[in-house]
Amino acid sequence: MLAVVQREMVDRKQWMTLSEFAEEWALAQTIPGPNVVNLSVMFGGKHFGPTGALAAMSGLLLLPGLLMVSIVFAFQAFAHLPVVASALHGMGVAAAGMVMAAGWRFWPTLKQHPLGWPLALLLMVVSFGLAAVVHWPLAKVIGLVGLVSCGLTWWRLQAKAQS
User: Fold this and answer.
1) Which pLDDT belongs to residue 87?
2) Cβ-based neighbours of 124, under 8 Å, separated by 6 or more
3) I want to staple 16 with a disulfide (CB 3.0 to 4.6 A). Which of 20, 36, 87, 97 is the partner?
4) pLDDT digits over 39-86, tens only?
5) pTM of the predicted model as reported, rounded to 2 decimal places
6) 61 or 106: which carries more pLDDT confidence?
7) What average pLDDT does the segment 145-162 reach?
8) Rounded distance, CA 30 to CA 26, Å?
9) Domain ranges of the chain
10) pLDDT of residue 129
């Protein structure tokens, strides 16, 4: 989903730059709820006020919600078929690839970040290791690595401001 939203808002519509999108997406991830909905509400509210925020949320949730309910009922009728299970597995792999592609697109923005790409890459590897190898719950990984990365960013910004 991230790749699709980023392509639409940055590349096709040009409503924001890649750096602005990265900042807004990071903020949207800190708010409880689906990231794309959070981003749409923030974008709608920023540009069109409370009415824009409500319109963005309704436009993003109403039709897809109805469609999803329809798909769930249809899936229940065909869930026992091996081809359906295989299709779902393939969709999971495709989704993982899209997330990786979106991450690759954000790579240039790391050059502008106070941490720089080597430290950001290290934090990414640590996050992956804690989640995939050590099997920490994602909330703990985000809490620990997020706190460390925020602290390091603050420290680097303070050092930069003093010099």
Assistant:
1) 86
2) none
3) 20
4) 999 999 999 999 999 999 998 889 988 998 998 888 888 888 898 888
5) 0.49
6) 61
7) 92
8) 7
9) 1-109, 113-163
10) 93
For the beta carbon of residue 120, count every other beta carbon within 10 angstroms.
20
- Between CA 110 and CA 19 the distance in angstroms is 9
Name the average pLDDT for the chain.
89
The burial of 76, by beta-carbon neighbours within 10 Å (0-12 exposed, 13-18 middle, 19 or more buried), is given as exposed
Residues 44, 66: Cα–Cα separation, whole Å? 22
**Number of other residues whose CB lies within 10 A of the CB of residue 147:** 10
Q: In the 3-class helix/strand/coil scheme, how is the chain assigned residue by residue? A: CHHHHHHHHHHHCCCCCHHHHHHHHHHHHHCCCCHHHHHHHHHHHHHHHHHHHHHHHHHHHHHHHHHHHHHHHHHHHHCCCHHHHHHHHHHHHHHHHHHHHHHHHHHHHHHCCCCHHHHHHHHHHHHHHHHHHCCCCHHHHHHHHHHHHHHHHHHHHHHHHHC
Burial of 9 (0-12, 13-18, 19+ CB in 10 A): buried
Tell me the C-alpha distance between 102 and 21, whole Å. Answer: 12
